[in-house]
Amino acid sequence: MSLDETRPFLPLRIAVLTLSDTRGPEDDASGDLLAGRVEAAGHLLAARDLMPDDRAALEARLRLWIANPEIDVILTTGGTGLTGRDVAVEAHQAVYEKEIDGFSTVFHMVSFKNIGVSTLQSRACGGVAGGTYLFALPGSPGACRDAWDEILVKQLDSRWRPCNFAKILDRLTEV
C-alpha cells in the first residue's frame, strides 16, 4: 500500500467508546490514544464515551451511533478477551450486516509481531452496519496502537492505494 498525495483527503467522523468496569475518564489510556490518533490523522472525533461491559447496553449504543448520520466509524476498545465480562464481540456481531473477516486476520498478524502467541487471547473484529464501519479493539493501549497505526490509519484514509474503506463509505448502503 502507498499514500497517493494526488487524491483528496476525506476526513471521517469517528466515535470512540471504551468498555470497562474498572476505568474512568481520568485513566482511559486506550480511549485517549485512539481519540488522539483520530484527530492527528485529520479526522473528526464525532463522539467519545466510556461505559461498563454490558452487552445489551453496548448493542443499544452501537445501534444509536449507527443511526446517527454524523458518525461514519465506531471504534470500541475493551471487551474483546475471553473472560465472562468480555462481550464487545458478541454485541458488535449482533449489529453487523456484514463482517470484515480480514480485519481480525490482519490485526492478529500485526499483533503477533509485538506480543507473539498472546494475540490468541484477542477477538478483535470489524464489520459494517447502516453505512457505518465498526471495529472492536482490545483494551490495551498497545493493541489499540497496533490496530490504528498499522491498519486503520491507512484504511480510513481516502488517499491509500490500491483501495481503502474511506473510498467506498458512500457505497455501503447500496442495494
Protein model, in words:
With about 180 residues, this protein is α/β, with parallel strands linked by helices. The chain has a single domain, classed as MoaB/Mog-like domain (Molybdenum Cofactor Biosythetic Enzyme, Chain A). It has five helices and eight strands. The protein has a six-stranded mixed beta sheet with strand order 3-2-4-7-6-5, with helices on both faces. The radius of gyration is 15 Å and the shape is globular.
What structural keywords apply?
8 strands; two-stranded antiparallel sheet; Molybdenum Cofactor Biosythetic Enzyme, Chain A; 5 helices; alpha/beta; six-stranded mixed β-sheet
Summarize this structure briefly:
The chain is α/β, with parallel strands linked by helices and 175 residues long. The chain has 5 helices and 8 strands.
CATH class: Alpha Beta
Instruction: Report strand order across the widest sheet.
Output: 3-2-4-7-6-5
Number of helices: 5
Q: Write the CATH homologous superfamily.
A: MoaB/Mog-like domain
Low-confidence segments: none
Q: What average pLDDT do the residues reach?
A: 96
Helix content: 25-40%
Span of the ends, CA to CA: 29 Å
User: How do the SSEs run, as a string of H and E?
Assistant: EEHEHEHEHEEHE
The secondary structure category is alpha/beta
Q: Proportion of β residues? A: 15-25%
Shape: globular
Q: What count of structural domains?
A: 1
CATH architecture: 3-Layer(aba) Sandwich
Task: Tell me the Rg in angstroms.
Answer: 15 Å
CATH topology: Molybdenum Cofactor Biosythetic Enzyme, Chain A
Oligomer: single chain
Characterize the largest beta sheet: strand count, sense, and whether it forms a barrel. 6 strands, mixed
How many β-strands, per DSSP?
Answer: 8
